[in-house]
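The instructor's notes for this session suggest beginning with a concrete chain rather than abstract definitions. Hand out the sequence below and ask the class to guess, before any prediction is shown, which regions might be ordered.
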Amino acid sequence: MTHLPSDNLGRAIQAFYPGRVEVVSVTGTHAETTNGFLDGTTVVRLACDVGCHYTVGTPPVDATTSDSWLPAGVVEYINVSRGQMISFIREGGSSGTAWVTEGL
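After discussion, reveal the predicted structure:
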């Protein structure tokens, strides 16, 4: 049994209620979100306008180019826990912006 909402034909659909958004500058030096995730946050949506690598963990969090890959313009949903943070580092020469949206 699924807990997802359904469309008018009764098929489960993915739903995400957006909560707090953090914006992170993605450069050649790792940068992390400012705040740990809130109580009750178990999923976040990631998006970035440049290809980058990211890692999730308990602060301090330092992404490297060996960590998970997020291509430019791709949206990814990942599981997280309360208090964790995400760190990003770019791949290549162009800096950009990453958006981390907590799901409520």
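Then share the key points. The chain has one domain: 18-103. The chain has a mean pLDDT of 92.
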